[in-house]
Specification:
Strand 3, helix 2 and strand 4 form a beta-alpha-beta unit. The chain has three helices and five strands, in the order ββαβαβαβ. Strands 1-2-3-4-5 form a five-stranded mixed sheet. By secondary structure, it is an alpha/beta fold.
Length: about 100
């Protein structure tokens, strides 16, 4: 499991590889806390194989960090399995998902 970050102009990217679960909770938080608040964020799911309920909680905490209702966070390159988890959890109402 790895997490990488990079800035793309005014957007900041977090890429998660492997299982998005409790084992990366601290690393994920440290990754987004290095980035400025109130900017646009992308979370790249192209390498995510699975996610658990802890990952959903991490995304909600990240949303709060990024500005809550005023934040822009796009979850990109979700495979059908991940997309389904996010959709069933109504995360499409809180995040842009593609």
């Amino acid at each position: 499991m790895t997490i990488t970050t990079e800035s793309r102009g005014v957007k900041h990217l977090i890429k998660v590889n492997g299982a998005f679960d409790y084992s990366i909770e601290d690393s994920f938080r440290q990754a987004y806390e290095k980035m400025p608040r109130n900017t646009d964020f992308l979370i790249d799911f192209s390498e995510v194989e699975s996610m658990d309920s802890t990952a959903l909680t991490m995304l909600l905490s990240f949303r709060d960090y990024a500005g809550g209702e005023n934040s822009f966070i796009e979850l990109v390159d979700c495979n059908p399995k991940i997309f389904s988890v996010l959709e069933v959890s109504n995360f499409h109402e809180l995040f842009k998902i593609s």
